[in-house]
Amino acid sequence: MGRIYRFLDERLNLSPLIGAVADHPIPDHVNVFKSPSAFVYCFGGVSFLLIVLEVLTGMFLMLYYVPSPDHAYQSVNYIQNEVLFGNLVRGIHRVGASATVLMVFLHMLRVYFTGSYKNPRELNWIAGLVLFTAIMGFGFTGYLLPWDQKAYWATAVGVNVAASVPLVGDFLASVLRGGSEVGTLTLSRFFAIHVMFLPAFLIIFLAVHFFMLRRQGISRPL
C-alpha cells in the first residue's frame, strides 16, 4: 500500500490535499475521550455513514429490482427469498432508511440546542435543512418501490397531502403521479427520483455542507 501511495503521490501530489482535508485538531468539547457529553457531536458523522450504507445497499438492490408494475413486486420478492443475502441487504436498506431519518433529526436537534446555527453558520444550517428534506424525499419515494398494497395506498395518501399545498398543490400532485392517479408513471417517476435526482441533489449539498463545516470549524456549545 505504501508503494501504491508513493506512486500516486509522485504523479498527483496527493499529500497537500490529504493534509488539508484530514490534518486538523479535534476540539476538546467534541473529543469523547475528554468530554463524556461529546457523543452528541457524533450524530452528523453517524448520519453520513448511514447514508453511505444506504447508497451501497441500494446499488446491490438495483441489480435485481425491476421498476415496472408488472414485475416490481415479483422482483422484490425474488430479492427477499431467492438472492443470496438478498433478505439481509434489503433489511439493512429498509431499517437503515429509518435510522438515517432518526439520526439526521437528532443531529439537527443538537445543532439547534447548542446554538450552532447562529452566525457565522446560518448558511450551513440552511444546507442542513435542505439535506433533511432530501432524506425525507428518499423515504417517501422509496416507500412505493415494493409496489404492494401498503406502499400503493400510503403513496396515494402522500400525494393527496401534497395536493393540499396552497397554490401549487394540484401541480405538485400531478407531477408526482404523472397523471390523474397513482399508476405506472408514478412508479417510474418515483424510481427515477429515488435513484437519480435525489442522489445528485444529495451529493451537491453534502459537498457544500462539508465545505462550510471545514471552513468554519466545529462550533462550540453556548
UniProtKB/TrEMBL annotation:
The chain crosses the membrane at residues 38-66, 95-113, 125-145, 191-213. The keyword Lyase does not apply. Residues 4-222 form the Cytochrome b/b6 N-terminal region profile domain. Coiled coil: none annotated. Keywords: Membrane, Transmembrane, Transmembrane helix. This is Menaquinol-cytochrome c reductase cytochrome b subunit. The gene is qcrB.
